[in-house]
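This section describes the prediction task in plain terms. A model, or a person checking by hand, is given the sequence of a single protein chain and must write out its three-dimensional structure as a string of tokens. No templates, partner chains or ligands are provided. The sample shown here is typical of the held-out split.
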Amino acid sequence: MIGGYEVSLITVIGINVILALSLNLITGFCGQISLGHAAFFGTGAYATAVLTVTGTPLAPALIAGIVSAGILGLVVGLASLRVRHDFLAITTMGVGFLFLGFVRKQEWLGGELGISRIPPVGVGDIGYMLIVVALSALAVAFSLYVKKAWIGFAFDAVADDEDAAQTVGVDVSRYKLTAFALGTAIAGLAGGLYAQFTRFIIPDAFNFITSITVLAMVVVGGIGSTWGVLAAAVVLTLMPELFRFVNDYKLLIYGGLILAVMRFSPGGLAGIVRGAVKWVAVR
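The expected answer:
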């Protein structure tokens, strides 16, 4: 029988897997850089928290969080139609800061103190862990499906060269908006699960460090690789638990990891595994 600590850790890992896969859909599959993903994570969390505090059951509250985050993502996606690369990264970073500034000034959202006393689901810690694990498995399955479906090929074309994709008949604007809507909606699901798990949320839980942490999971795992990102989400979630000093230097350590991976192994963990398999195969 696993204890409360292990149950909590598995729950956090499941939430982070969903969150990392949501950014991978935008950045890894479609090539759209986002440095403000915590804003969509937070939108789902706040929407779910507000509704559950007023007595709404978890399922419709989660759906509201998914929809609200997806709508915000669609709005940001509209901005992405006019900017690319570095400018898109700056735009999404600005969205993250705007989100923090907004929630900190709204008394109905708790201001700086956030929202507390979120009611429990009523299924117990282990029951909730199983719900999160099941939803994270669905997120993995959805990610794998998108990668192999026609929409995944269209995303790849947009990520490789938007102009070339346009010339062969790919509706670049449509697929960029789709990527942002889907990715941010899934981030909203992760946010709703997080709010229900912690049972209180504050603005600082959705700051720039959170966005960098999620980006590190995608880069370290291997941009565009579902299994690599899943593995990185597990490893980077466990790292602060195994090495407590990591919590004090998260931005420095995760930023260093991103630079190191991009310089020495752009394929991340997935690339390392593929290289090792090829090396073994030729021996």
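For orientation: The chain has one domain: 4-209.
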